[in-house]
Amino acid sequence: MAKEPNIYQRLPGRGTAALQSTALYLAPDHLLQVASSGFSENYKRFYYRDIQTIAIHRTSIGKLWNALWCTLAGFLALGGLAVDGVARLVLLVLAGVFGLAALANIIIGPSCACVIGTAVQSETLPSLKRLRKTEKILARLRPLITAAQGQLSSDELAMRLEQARRRPSFDAGARPLIYEEATAPPIVSTESDPSREI
Questions:
Q1: What is the rounded (10 degree) CA torsion for 51, 168, 180, 120?
Q2: Cα 28 to Cα 149: distance, rounded to the nearest angstrom
Q3: Could you tell me if 26 and 139 are in contact, meaning their C-beta atoms sit under 8 angstroms apart?
Q4: Contact 176/188 with Cβ under 8 angstroms?
Q5: What is the pLDDT of residues 35-60, one digit of tens each?
Q6: Burial of residue 93, with CB atoms counted within 10 A of its CB: 0-12 exposed, 13-18 middle, 19 or more buried
Q7: What's the rounded Cα separation, in Å, for the pair 164 and 119?
Q8: DSSP string across the chain
Q9: What is the pLDDT of residue 89?
Q10: Which end of the chain, C or N, has fewer beta carbons within 10 A?
Q11: Residue 189 in contact with residue 56, Cβ under 8 Å?
């Protein structure tokens, strides 16, 4: 008997939520989120025809990690300069490791949170936590959503955008950044303070 072809294509990225590891998969008619605890798996499907909005929220997690790693690197480097011998070498190597971690975090770009919205639910996608990667994945999703839903009128687009702004996942004081095509479901990004971009 011939093996059925795998219809799922794994998207880059992995996240954690409620002590579970999550990943996203593309299928011809839906987006699949798999949450695994190591003992069990939970599946959530978001059919392209039902997706109304995708919201991206900038977060400060990347900055917090940078602050932690830079602080540790600084203290270890100062401690290394204050001692001699093997202790100096060990402390300076550790400082270098934390410095490289901070540099890697800066290179992979700003952190974000992504929320997908349908008529009945809003769901966070924990595996989409870096802005640059999230925007690339959303660029792949947009044509699939548009193909499933057809062309939207400007009134329908405005209504969906207003629904997205009213969802509890949005910061009431956030400034919306809207990535939308004239006939596709809106993708909305918010940042609370443009002067504090990550």
A1: 20
A2: 13
A3: no
A4: yes
A5: 998 888 899 999 999 888 888 888 88
A6: exposed
A7: 10
A8: -PPPPP--EEPS--EEETTEEEEEEE-SSEEEEEEE-SS-EEEEEEETTT--EEEEEE-SHHHHHHHHHHHHHHHHHHHHHHS-HHHHHHHHHHHHHHHHHHHHHHHH--BEEEEEE-SS-EEE-TT--BHHHHHHHHHHHHHHHHHHH-PPPHHHHHHHHHHHHHSTTS-TTPEEEEE--TTS--EEEEES-GGG--
A9: 93
A10: N
A11: yes
> pTM score > 0.90 for this model?
no
What are the tokens at 181? 């095509």
Looking at the DSSP assignment, which residues form a beta bridge with residue 32?
25, 45
196 pLDDT more than 60: no
**C-alpha of 21 from chain center:** 14
Contact 59, 131 (CB under 8 A): no
Q: What is the identity of the amino acid at 135? A: E
Q: What's the gap between Cα 193 and its chain centre?
A: 19
d(CA 192, CA 190): 7
Contact 134, 142 (CB under 8 A): no
Which amino acid does the sequence have at 73?
A: A
Neighbours of 113 (CB within 10 A): 20
Contact (CB, 8 A) for 75 and 43: no
